[in-house]
Amino acid sequence: xxxSPSWSASSGTGARAMxxxxxxxxxxxxSGLAAARELVxxxxxxxxxxxRDRPGGRTGVMEVGGVTVDIGGEWVDAAHSELRxxxxxxxxxxxxxxxxxxxxxxxxxxxFSPEMPLDGGDAAAYDRMQEALADAAEGVDxxxxxxxxxxxxxxxxxxxxxxxxxxxGIHAVETIVSTCGSxxxxxxxxxxxxxxxxxxxxxxxxxxxxxVRGGAGGVARALAGELGERVRYRSPVVEVRQDGGGVALRxxxxxxxGEVRARRAVLALPFTCYRGVSFHPPPPPVFRRMFAxxxxxxxxxxxFIFGRPVGGAPFTITDTPLGYCCPxxxxxxxxxxxxxxxxxVLLPELGLPAAERERxxxxxxRRLYDVPEPEVVVEKVWPHxxxxxxxxxxxxxxxxxxxxxxxxxxxxxxxxxxxxxxxAAPSFxxxxxxxxxxxxxxxxxxxxxxxxxxxxTGTGEV
Length: 462
Description:
The chain has helices at residues 30-41, 81-89, 120-137, 156-162, 167-182, 191-200, 217-227, 271-274, 285-293, 347-350, 354-368, 399-403, 429-446, and strands at residues 7-9, 16-18, 23-26, 46-49, 61-64, 67-70, 75-76, 94-96, 105-108, 111-113, 210-212, 231-232, 237-243, 246-251, 258-262, 264-267, 278-280, 299-306, 316-318, 324-327, 335-342, 376-381, 410-411, 414-416. The protein is α/β, with parallel strands linked by helices. Among the domains are: 23-59 and 80-88 and 215-295 and 396-446, FAD/NAD(P)-binding domain (3-Layer(bba) Sandwich); 119-202, Orthogonal Bundle (Guanine Nucleotide Dissociation Inhibitor, domain 1), CATH 1.10.405. The strands form 6 sheets. The chain has a 7-stranded mixed β-sheet. Strand 19 (316-318) and strand 20 (324-327) form a beta hairpin. The radius of gyration is 22 Å and the shape is globular.
């Protein structure tokens, strides 16, 4: 783990702050924690500043009535080697996620069907879409995918309309791609960027093969546990100031304002959060454009917990505000169903009081499944989370050409990481880990710290 850092006690509640770390990391999500862990393992002093009172960012677990559930990122793709390697290193386990979307039943327009409700012409257009997604990403360097972006960057909806798909067919695609997945409407989603992202999951129809036993939120908890007092919570950064000697970060905390000066800084935040940070000097124009234009979707997860196991609850894809429903891996011996929904179908729900949202969600669930009233309902509405303000970032037409190179880039002593630090596959847990490790590697090369081989980088235990 490297040498112990030098700590100095601050006034107030007894929180502790490092006076002058080698590297300051902003954000204790998977990306920031992965970066910090790598830097500490190589012998650097590191301080992590986190706005929330917990680690994990857009992952996390919640305990209600003796039941533990994932409230954020949950599914792990077989192709996500960096995340799987980290899970293995931390001694955590992966478990198969189940049948998945490929074998789910559909519920669209109030009717059930065993497969995607597409007529002949629409089905042919959808098949062409799958082929075109594979072709668009063929031969593209994922580390420089913006260089291959076409001049005519259509949205997914524009592409489907050009292929002659009907409104009913587009609604079905919107349900599987947006409501149950990417959370951004098809009209705002770049076809090319979506193709590159799908390729990063192993191709069309792949992904969501595993879950983390005990919840994906346990990954960040384990990382934060290793780092110990190097992680300081409830300390949002409000100013980043660079000069010839390094970088100074000003933050606020329950103890009052504070400042940390470091040789380098890693910023591992959703782009929406950069709009509340003052930079001196300002970042280059491409970074400012990226922070201003980044598009995030809306998403909600709802866990319905019952007093007994819910046997035979099938995976369901629905165009209701429940979206994608499947058996929950809630701990504590309880059975449950988890619903994940995003996109425009969710918008009318977001303005309702929490109690009304819960009543509506339970009614919708019982139309889909023959289940009793749940004993516990756990809801997480990510657009209501101040330190996230959205869900996934999905690149709009023109975004890759406009600022793709800046994603995961650097300006001065500041390195960007986070789940959006990988242009080819933004908003995956694996992208968060990968961009954090990449930022750490660049810092280690620049400040000439001898690299040691990393042990235990397997593909995760299943």
